Amino acid sequence: MMRYRRFALTFVIALALFVTGNYVIWKSVTEDLITDRHYDGGDLSRMGYLPGSKIYRRNTTDLTRRHIRIEEYDGRRVDMITIGDSFSNGRGGGYNRFYQDYIATLNGFDVLNIPRHNDLSPLVSIADLAHSGFLKKTGARYLLLGVSEKAWREMAGSDPLGNSLDDTARQAFKRADYEAALPRVAFINNGNFKFLLNALLYRFSDHAVFSQVYRAQLIKPLFTARDSRTLLYLRYRETPGHEQVVRVNDNLNQLAELLGHQGITLIFMPCVDKYDLYRPYLRSPRYAPGTFFEELRPLPKRYLFVDTKMILNDLLLRGEKDVYYPDDTHWSWKASRALARAIPLQQNARKGSAP
User: Fold this and answer.
1) In the chain, which stretches have pLDDT less than 70?
2) Residues 167, 263: one domain?
3) For the chain, what is the domain count?
4) Helix (H, G, I), strand (E, B) or coil at 69
5) pTM confidence score
6) Of residues 72, 78, 145, 83, the one with CA closest to residue 110
7) Burial of 96 from C-beta contacts in 10 A (0-12 / 13-18 / 19+)
8) How would you label 165-189 residue by residue, b for 16+ Cβ within 10 Å and e otherwise?
9) What are residue 347's phi and psi, to 5 degrees?
10) What percent of the chain clears pLDDT 90, i.e. is strictly above it?
């Protein structure tokens, strides 16, 4: 009987400690990390369970003009169409998260955003919109392709303009992925254990052995988060060779010629990889520098090229913090504003006020 009571008491105490421990960790750290109960943050701090890099932010806008989402489009004439991935869909979140709104406000433009089809090369998608007559009906003078640097693989394919989409693929353009809802999580969850484990393992490994999120130290503070000298990033991807960049450029030139026949100027804005941008400021770089932008710059172009690596590096050289969010793979409003100002556009008569 005494043995049974002792076992029951031990079990109750262990259970109480387990529940209490989970609750304390949840309330002090993980609730803020893996839910948006207070303010949302970036995927890197959430995936790596790294609270020191989290920037708390809510989606707010104070610009005078806003872009048009494809699901809201009513057939009106627009000045510019933007097509791209998460960078073009405001997935970094926070203050003035859409670079399209800066373009609209600075130039007095009506800007229509169309999310790219994730399973297709963006060049194929744009060519299909041109062949179908959609682009001409919009009256757009510019089409801006804004995709992450890693999209070079898809854009280096052969015959980029020779395919045509079916109706199912075209419908995908109407489903913009602007928001990423976080799942509801109870206070007892495996995230509490992962936080404790990662807190230990990051002391011995730059990616805590198992984590997808890498951590590196900067030579100076370039973020406003608590860990202002810490760079969080995903594993750096393979950089293309010269021949592959030449193929990308040739394909873009073909697309620019196709659009030019419809009175549309192509703008290509590859979004520099976060690691590649901040690499010169790392104490001990893990990977070799990327070469995509360096290979592309001197090539002859029939399109307008927005060199995000050079433009955003100028901000870093001036000591600007949070050009990219410390807890995310996406840039902040500071980058969006700088890039919008750098694009050489013929402005409308109804010019907006400069933010």
Assistant:
1) 1-2, 7, 23-28, 37-39, 118-119, 158-160, 162-183, 186-187, 191, 347-355
2) yes
3) 2
4) strand
5) 0.89
6) 78
7) buried
8) beeebbeebeebebeeeeeebeeee
9) -75, 155
10) 50
